[in-house]
Specification:
Helix content is about 20%, strand content about 30%. α6 crosses α7. By secondary structure, the protein is an alpha+beta fold.
Length: about 375
């Protein structure tokens, strides 16, 4: 039986020349470009992100993800001397730590991560990163995922901050730099929400000055937390996207945020998600609890065409990989044909793609 086009994975493919993938951010955060897709008349036009206020729906409430990216990529050695790369996937605030058994000040916890080495580690292999941080491989999973036992002395966040590298996406073909420590974070990230392994990239364009100007123009602002996992880069592998099992991510919607969103909905003011992670947080909250309200927990919501948005009215987002769950999500909001048309317009007009690229407003 023929798969309907909206559910066929290949329907979300498009040709992207390598040189259009941004390898570095714009000189200024708000110096990026903005493609405006207006669903009222299916129109497209290019603008500057700095002029965002001119294009947002009047009186909109913006909802942003305040999670912080940690330097989650560590390089260590096995007892045999072999080099190992470990990418931490468990958000630091969610780690359930226990005292070590040796009485020497160690703390341990079971966490998830990706292990990469020239020879795959075996269960029980020990990888050392420093005198105060090591892991023991426990259980292998699919696609390089492992459950490991992490052991450390002192403050774990400090260990990662001093030893780790920012996990830039695989399509950025360069090592992370000191500049990325600042630019691959939003300016409004919350240090207590450190744990994402990828930035909520739609938020990278915002500056404190831009946020002040939005407030002066009467736009509201509130925040959610979603710890962005490696699943954001995981490809959809099923030819029929309805067969895809979405990864789970932990989300937090505070009472204050829920109240602000509820008030906006009651007053008929549009709720604009800053990025797909904010949209997933709001729609995930609604699916898991059946209401707009305070929520803390996991969601594996997979938003595809045919989905009825319960909270989000519009979205600010970057440009996404072909056949990814993210381009499928925005197609649920704007329509697959409209999204692909917009991407074609962006390619014809010199827009830069992916994490450090330009932005799009779907309203």
């Amino acid at each position: 039986m023929e798969i309907p086009k909206d559910y066929k994975l290949s329907s979300y493919d498009y040709h992207l020349p390598e040189e259009r993938i941004a390898q570095a951010p714009a000189d200024r955060r708000d110096g990026s470009r903005l493609l405006v897709l207006d669903r009222a008349d299916d129109s497209l036009h290019a603008a500057a992100f700095a002029d965002l206020a001119d294009h947002l729906p009047p009186d909109a409430l913006l909802v942003a993800n305040n999670s912080r990216v940690i330097p989650a990529r560590l390089f260590g050695t096995k007892d045999t001397g072999g080099k190992v790369e470990f990418l931490m996937l468990t958000p630091l605030p969610l780690i359930k730590a226990s005292p070590g058994q040796d009485g020497e000040g160690w703390t341990t916890a079971r966490v998830e991560g990706l292990l990469r080495a020239s020879k795959s580690p075996k269960p029980g292999a020990v990888v050392t990163f420093s005198d105060d941080l090591r892991l023991t491989a426990r259980e292998a999973g699919p696609y390089g995922r492992w459950t490991v036992e992490l052991a450390w002395r002192g403050d774990l966040t400090a260990r990662f901050e001093s030893l780790g590298h920012l996990p830039l996406p695989p399509y950025i073909h360069r090592p992370d730099s000191e500049a990325d420590r600042e630019r691959y974070q939003t300016t409004y990230n919350d240090a207590s929400k450190a744990g994402s392994v990828a930035a909520p990239t739609a938020g990278l364009h915002f500056t404190p000055a831009l946020r002040r100007s939005l407030a002066e123009r009467g736009f509201g602002w509130t925040e959610v937390t979603l710890y962005v996992g490696y699943g954001t880069f995981s490809p959809v592998r099923c030819p029929d996207i309805r067969d895809h099992a979405m990864h789970s991510e932990y989300i937090e919607v505070s009472e204050a945020t829920a109240r602000a969103v509820s008030q906006a909905k009651a007053e008929g003011r549009p709720v604009v998600a800053v990025g797909t992670t904010s949209a997933r947080s709001l729609e995930g909250m609604f699916r898991e609890s059946g209401r707009i309200g305070e929520f803390r927990g996991e969601t594996d919501i997979f938003i595809t065409p045919g989905y009825r948005f319960n909270v989000v009215d519009a979205m600010i987002t970057n440009f996404h990989l072909p056949e990814s769950s993210l381009i499928i999500m925005i197609s649920a909001l704007a329509g697959r044909k409209s999204v692909l048309s917009a991407y074609g317009f962006a390619l014809e007009n010199g827009f830069r793609f992916f994490s450090y690229g330009d932005a799009m407003l779907i309203k």
